[in-house]
Amino acid sequence: MTRADDALQRLYEDTGWREDLIDSEANALLKWAENKLLAFDAQSTDAIDFETRVNTIRRVMVQIDKLVARQARMTPEERQSMLDSLAALMHVTPLQQDDLLKHGFSAQTVSDNTPMIGALTAWLDGGDLPWYDVPEQPAQWGGIIHVAAAAEAPPAPDPAAMSAILDFFNTTPTDPPPNPEDTPTDDADAP
Predict the structure, then answer these.
(1) How many CA atoms lie within 13 A of 20 on its CB side?
(2) Are 145 and 151 in contact (CB under 8 A)?
(3) Is the Cβ–Cβ distance between 139 and 108 less than 8 Å?
(4) How is residue 74 annotated by DSSP?
């Protein structure tokens, strides 16, 4: 087993870096980490240097997990601080959150952050930030990504009909007339 395989196995067993990610997001991030680990294994002859890089990758993965999971609740300053931290860890040019917005990435909660993870990892690898195609469907839990035209309001209810409905619910039910079969009888009076 190579050092990269060993490090990757440890990442598979460690759930701390994917606490808030769904499977597709975790798989995208793990695939990126696998490629980085293989490159580090080929570049690094020193075991200590390799382990330092593995620890850095794990810290980056934890940061990405937190960023994509909490971005909708973060202030712009907190979001920028996370991006700056990622840039420092990977020694890349800092990314401004406005760059993400210009490329179609939103700070709203979406059902799948895999495209955001792909963009962040491309940037961390020194590549260009990809464009994000905004889905036409609303997010599964959270804000709507694509704003549609406002729906037409339903017509106002007819006051006479509403009055009749309310009168029905506001009347007290009357007691039905007694049924002679339901009246108790005294067995002593029976013929």
Answers:
(1) 16
(2) no
(3) yes
(4) S
pLDDT tens across 176-186, in order?
Answer: 667 767 666 66
Question: 29 and 121 in contact (C-beta within 8 Å)?
Answer: yes
Q: Which two tokens stand for residue 124?
A: 């961390």
The tokens describing 121, both together, are: 């990892």
Residue type, 7: A
Give CA–CA dist 83/107, Å, rounded: 13
The model's pLDDT over 64-88, given as tens digits with 9 standing for 90+, comes to: 999 888 888 888 889 889 999 999 9
Domain boundaries, the chain: 3-124
Q: What angle do CA 103, 23, 69 make, to 5 degrees?
A: 50
Q: Where are the alpha helices (DSSP H) in 71-183?
A: 76-90, 97-102, 114-124, 159-170
Residue 106, number of CB atoms within 10 A of its CB = 17
- For residue 139, give the amino acid letter: A
What is the pTM for the complete model shown? 0.65
Residue 164 CA, distance from chain mean position = 46
Q: Is the distance from CB of 132 to CB of 119 less than 8 angstroms?
A: yes
Residues 6+ positions from 83 with CB-CB distance below 8 Å: 67, 94, 95, 96, 97
